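From the pipeline queue, job 12 of 40. The input is one protein chain; the requested action is below.

Action: predict structure.
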Amino acid sequence: MDGDATLETAASLVGVVAAGDLTARGATREALDRVIRMDASLGAMVHVSAERALARARQLDEAPPAGPLHGVAIALKDNICRAGEPTTCASRMLTGWAPPYDATVVRRLEAAGAVLVGKTNMDEFGMGSSTETSAFGPTRNPWQLGCVPGGSSGGAAAAVATGMVQVAIGSDTGGSIRQPAALCGVVGLKPTYGRVSRYGLVAYGSSLDQMGPLARTVADAARVLEVVAGPDSRDATCMDEGPWTWAPRPIAGMRIGVLTRLVEGPGLQPEVAEALAKAMAWYEAAGCTLVPVAMPELAWAIPTYYLLATAEVSSNLSRFEGMRFGLRREADDLGGTLERTRSEGFGAEVKRRILLGTFALSAGHQEAYHGRARKVRQLLTEAHDRVFRDVDVLLSCTSPTTAFPLGSRLDDPLAMVLSDVATVGANLAGLPALSVPCGFDRKGLPIGMQLQGPRGGEAIILDAGHAYERAHPWWTARPPVAWDLQPLAGGTRA
């Protein structure tokens, strides 16, 4: 620890600012200084709103504390709209576009006193598991710069891991908050589908997408969820419930279902299996009961997810044609303009998924592919419901491996897809899931443990994660190598 306010948790920083030991402006300057020092090497940020952030911090200093995030530096994934600020989804297709409105989460964060400092890098339109498909170039893992940070919220995870911000807001369609959280050694929370309004999130898979926090601690993730959760008339899929709150509870007596194929099965890196075995032993010693869970239906999760997600991609991305906003490449006629714009605007991975989804929805194939996938999704949802009648929480790996080298899977889409083998089930069933750091491999790369709960069960997975984290405070014990980065020529890319 070097004494920077940016290395405080969100909760402790709020206390420091409230006590008058640091101003919100001072905390924001420290966050921006770390971006300047580190980001040319990491590529975590795609846009930094330095003047706007400092002006916001000044306003906070001139008024009474605004709420539970007073003075906390937060970054947004580049697919979350903030009025007047570039929102590109890391794609050439949205070059130069700035939305005229704020996402609901943005309004709620600012009402709670947060200082939004900019946008983080991501896989283009959220399509990837490594943050290598971005039009801005890849983000690097802060623990080992030659490795990926995970995806698609890789920039958000790297920014939190290095203390550029206390918290980042990511989106999760098939694991895009949890997998990068695991690979970067931070906490990542995907709420129950409908817990957080999706208004202002550029849609990838509308029945799967969910926004949530990446943070240094479970308590910080819960604090942010308390702020952003709640009904919203602009999003018809929002749960019609009042404010959501969390207070930690003892875990003795908790029944933890262990997904056997995702804690010791084939394809699991041995060091990941070892770390999970130690975590399970700790839970047992803490008074929890471990229950082996087979769930053979999970074998269908990956193909089901990719059929449904790509079909929704085909529909959602049809609006990006160069006529109303973003990139436009003129040709001799309308058809040529559409073809040229989309050919130049979308990257290879986005094109691949649009084509797959269009095929799955095409006449003669829709029922054979998309129709069957919808039925299997229902079977998976029912399987999860049955399991949660007998257990309180499901435990597994978050990612079957630690961070892999940059470029090593770009030519192997199947290997990239399998990065999400443990995470897509929660999206298909609409369940909350939490990734918590649970150790390191022999190369010093972080390992993540996933805790899933029943629909609406954020509190119980936070209880389980918080108790484990208090006994294993990985983030305070072992800083990423990126903390030692010095400014490079050119500074930040923002």
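Job complete. Residues 5-255+389-484 form a domain with the Amidase signature (AS) enzymes fold (CATH 3.90.1300.10).
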